[in-house]
């Protein structure tokens, strides 16, 4: 149960970070670093980051985000599926 709560919270954080960074970019303010965005994505927040990319149309032209985040999302989904698998893998 704690794992699911963590995954939900980190994805909300990833979504929020993408929205906040887009708003800051439009206002020409200090930005959230790409390294921080990737850190959140790698910490099982790839779904939130990807949804934020699509919702806010942010970082959608950066190849590393365009291909890397969906790939990371698939990898994380596989890990979660294995973790919750009823079979001994």
UniProtKB/TrEMBL annotation:
This is Membrane component. The chain crosses the membrane at residues 37-53, 65-84. It comes from Bacillus atrophaeus (strain 1942). It comes from the Bacteria. Pfam families: DUF1294. Keywords: Membrane, Transmembrane, Transmembrane helix.
């Amino acid at each position: 149960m704690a794992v699911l709560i963590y995954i939900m919270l980190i994805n909300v954080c990833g979504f929020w970070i993408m929205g906040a960074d887009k708003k800051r970019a439009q206002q020409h303010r200090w930005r959230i670093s790409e390294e921080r965005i990737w850190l959140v994505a790698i910490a099982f927040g790839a779904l939130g980051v990807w949804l934020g990319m699509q919702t806010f149309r942010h970082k959608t032209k950066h190849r590393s985000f365009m291909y890397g985040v969906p790939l990371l999302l698939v990898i994380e989904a596989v890990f979660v599926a294995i973790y919750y698998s009823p079979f001994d893998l």
